[in-house]
Target: Ion channel protein
Amino acid sequence: MVQDTGQRAPSVTPATPARVLLPSIVPAAAVGVLCALVLVGVSAAAEELQKVLWGPLPDALGIGPYSVLWMVVMLVATGVAVGLVVWRMPGHAGPDPATVGLDAPVLPPAVLPGLLLATALMLAGGPSLGPENPIITVNVALAAWLGARALPKAPGRVWPALAEAATIGALFGTPVAAALVISEALARQETRGLLWDNVFAPLTAGAAGALTASLIDHPSFDLDLPSFGRPGWGDLLAAVVIASAGALLGMAAVRAFPYVHAAFATLRHPMLMLPAGGLALGGLAALGGHLTLFKGLDEIAELAHDPDGRSAGRYALLAVVKLAALLVAASCGFRGGRIFPAVFVGTALGLCAHALVSGVHPSVGVSAAVLGILLAITRQGWISLFVAAVLVASPGILALLCVASLPAWLLVTGRPQMQLREDGTPVR
Model:
């Protein structure tokens, strides 16, 4: 006879049967393909418009495409164009972008044309924002609207999760980023079942989105920095210090965010707020040069092409100006995301550290600084680690980043985020 000791075996959550997961593959893959096509389509249209606005048009007028005059004119004109869209289009191009993060609200379909147009104009015109937030918002709304009609019995909460995972997978060209973001979101929620059961459908959507984007657009984030071998103690110290410095720099922008947003809000009308933001961005572009324009991916490749080609002061100026441009663009009403310009800030900061201390390897400096900046700006630990690591294709970097993330996280956790509530107070 077995003696009853009064102790019970720990409960084990049963895995979801395969027959329950299998039906989710087709709708998840369909969402992934759709979201990738929306992202690639908007990005391609914006790139074609950018080529005209910053090439043949100023040349035909006899003005240098990156002269101070043209940069100011283009950024103010972009503010006017986006302001018109926000003012006149149905739904006003969605909610105030300062109140929206990666977890997008489900908007009515009538809002989406204005949001897509405002995003394309922003990407082409030069403000320092990326496509991620508005494209995720559009894809969430499309997936929810189409999904409710195609599969009305499916839970409504499924479609936003699939769309977010698909768009993130398409943005980074790999479903790994989507899986990390979804797993972090699940950790904040009360979910039933095993982790891989819960991420099965979103991971399918992320994989479909990544494959579709890779086949069409071939996204790549490797900066081709000098190769990094086996890490040493000096590399670990550098990573910890630089990641913490990046987190502090990012938190300075986060602290200023509600005040800058409130200053633009006093203008009350998008036809005042957005042109004023464009004028401020033009002044910053005149100070920092053309590299501080746009979302920043092409520009960080130019920075990384010659890590020793600029002085520490020049790199520091680029980092500060780009961060200020991100702060202004995110505060005055331009529709866009903050991840890609934050990567530029981190890249410039990391190369500044390398220029100041030659013993700091460029790969260590860039990846650690990007990690710190993204932790402060996004408060997404996994996505920050992923982006920082993917910029430098070296397995030795990952261990350094994991350690460096610890003190950087202590600096940012529990403090305000770069996202506001509808009443203008910071989200914590």
In short: Residues 111 and 150 are 21 Å apart (CA to CA). The chain has 17 helices and no strands. The longest helix spans residues 233-265. The chain has a mean pLDDT of 88.
